[in-house]
Design a protein that fits this description.
29% of the residues lie in helices and 27% in strands. The protein has eight helices and 14 strands. The chain is an alpha/beta fold.
Length: 313
Amino acid sequence: MSVNQLTPKVFACSQSTELAQAIAKHYGTELGDLTVSRFSDGEFQPVINETVRGRRVFIIGSTFPNADNLMELLLILDACKRASAKHVTAVIPYFGYARQDRKDQPRVAIGAKMVANLLEASGATRVMTMDLHAGQIQGFFEKPVDHLYGSTIFLPYIESLKLENLTIASPDMGGSKRAYAYAKYLQSDVVICYKQRAKANQISHMELIGQVEGQHVILVDDMADTAGTLTKAADLMMERGALSVRAIVTHPILSGDAYEKIENSQLTELITSDTIPLKKQSSKIKVLSCAPLFAEVMDKVQNFKSITDKFII
């Protein structure tokens, strides 16, 4: 058997072990043997306990806070590079620091570009991720980027609800393109929320552009951090006569009092994926796994097949 025909090795970062196990199961393999040694001061060192020489390696790890999650991914990439892996793919279901994609005020870092540089310098020869906060981040890389879409797993669920009088909504102007894509596929109407922020994670004012009276509304966004935007938008739409409001977000960051906001809001449910593990369970949160999608795309990458059919919208 040639080296190219060898089964790829799949390794998990500590923060994404559960998701990585699910991806490996759908891929038809087991996670590689990797341990993390820790010093008493908190410094850690990932150690790969099996050969990866000449292999394709997939390293699965979302880079949500804290910064140790990103650092662990970088160290594992470096370890694989130094162990003579042939191809090293960083599978990053949630790409952290993506909100820092430009200079929106003087004297700020462009964090997404810096992370891209770090990933490549550490040995990533390919990056696989889903629903980047800004699609142009793909251009920050000199290596191939497989940018998957959460719509692949969310649209079948929306269709299963069989909602009449369906309207797709964007919680802000920046997400209007995503909302229009969903609406075009589902042949539904679109409304947009216009919001102003007093500062990061704090909304000072919100208005609704469009009519939702007598409609079942589904808000679509790439992430929910404090959940302030989603819950405020849901309450506003119910005030304007919506029959129900659901929200779809790919990445459930859900920091601070986000869970309490969701529970106390007029959202019927929040539909999300498992790119980030939930901190706690909620009766209003439904999780759809992205593991089958990543496993299938990893298999196509390994076998040099097109992934075009994975882009529903």
